[in-house]
Amino acid sequence: MIISEKQYSAQYILSDGGVKKFDDIGCMIEHLKQKKDEYGSVSSVFVRDYVHRNWINTDIAHFVHSNKIITPMGHGVAAFGTKEEAKSIETEMKGKYLGNLDILLNK
């Protein structure tokens, strides 16, 4: 998969070492919701921090949705390493703070 805009990319690593990459965080969330049986064999989930562009573990990530966040597949979800950065973008982009990955997977 070609990742055109790193700040929206995501990936997860399976316990067998396999890696699934996504060019849009929203695509990974949808995939994990549809493949709940596969989620049990996931050892780590990472997303790119929207501000700093580095990989962060979803254990610490905070997510925001906004129609003003233009992602490659149109999901409009970005990840942040701190709640403060997420809340700042939520205000700036007139978005919605979504919480963490567990909350998103259980919606």
Characterize the structure shown.
This protein has 107 residues and is α+β, with helices and mostly antiparallel strands. The protein has one domain. 27% of the residues lie in helices and 29% in strands. It has helices at residues 25-34, 36-39, 83-92, 101-105, and strands at 10-14, 19-22, 42-48, 55-57, 62-65, 77-80, 96-99. The strands form two sheets. A four-stranded antiparallel beta sheet has the order 2-1-3-4. Strand 1 (10-14) and strand 2 (19-22) form a beta hairpin. The longest helix is centred in the first third of the chain and has 10 residues, at 25-34. The model has no long low-confidence stretch (mean pLDDT 90).
SSE order, one letter for each helix or strand: EEHHEEEEHEH
Distance between the termini: 27 Å
Count the E strands. Answer: 7
What number is the mean pLDDT? 90
Domain count: the total is: 1
Query: Which percent range describes the beta-strand content?
Result: 25-35%
Assign an overall shape: globular
Briefly note the structural class of the backbone.
Answer: alpha+beta
- Give the helix proportion (percent range): 25-40%
Largest sheet, order of strands side by side?
A: 2-1-3-4
Radius of gyration from CA coordinates: 13 Å
What about the largest sheet? 4 strands, antiparallel
* DSSP helical segment count: 4
Uncertain stretches: none
